[in-house]
Amino acid sequence: MIDPLERIAAALERMSPPPGRAPDFAGAEAFVWHVRPDRLEPVEEVNRVDLSLLLGIERARDTLLENTLQFARGLPANNALLWGSRGMGKSSLVKAIHAEVQTRGLPLKLIEVQREDLPSIGRLLNVLREAPGLRFLLFCDDLSFSHDDEHYKSLKAVLDGGIEGRPKNVVFYATSNRRHLMPRDMIENERSTAINPGEAVEEKVSLSDRFGLWLGFHPCTQDEYLAMIRGYCDAYRVEIDDATLRAEAIEWQATRGSRSGRVAWQYFTDLAGRRGVAL
Hints:
alpha/beta, seven-stranded mixed sheet, Rossmann fold, 11 helices
């Protein structure tokens, strides 16, 4: 009987391995949370742009920066939901603000969490709770939920904290194209078919209400779009006259059928390649 029991124990160990030890937080400024087994993988170099290059979102930039500085200094701060138009710099702003806080010598670590790993968030909080002297910014990019998605319940562990409370050294930022984190047609459908329409979607919609800070991102104007590209050209020393830049950039956004910070960067990448400038 001993041999079968040992094999069963080994199989269970493979299915649910023990959590890894907490990493050396001094070894990196950013980490990615993984499960099976639970671990924080350090990120050697974060993919981000300088805060000064994010144009057209000045109000959101200043508000989020102030909130993050308050948190990094040990003062009260809100969880933040950055919602709105795609490609307008929501995730870029979070990473750029983290870099700005780092330059001021404040002990803030960035940890990226995938939406699929939200059920394990309680275990992550237990690891971070035991790291005194450090502050952690949890970041979930492109957060949204479908009709039968139960992951949103796990998120409440971060936003509300349950009976233990959210660790005082943790704040949560999320980006989404949806203000209420679920499609509008789904909200209307559940309201129209429910016995009590007021309660049909209250649990899911109220999730966004748990973010103390809402920052909306809206489509940029043509002038803002051109200013973004000019800012990239000046920062990376790509020479081009205003008339040529305007003509090419407008044609580029017309072929894409949209105008945003992402489209501006894509045009600039093409321009830098044609001009022989390495980024």
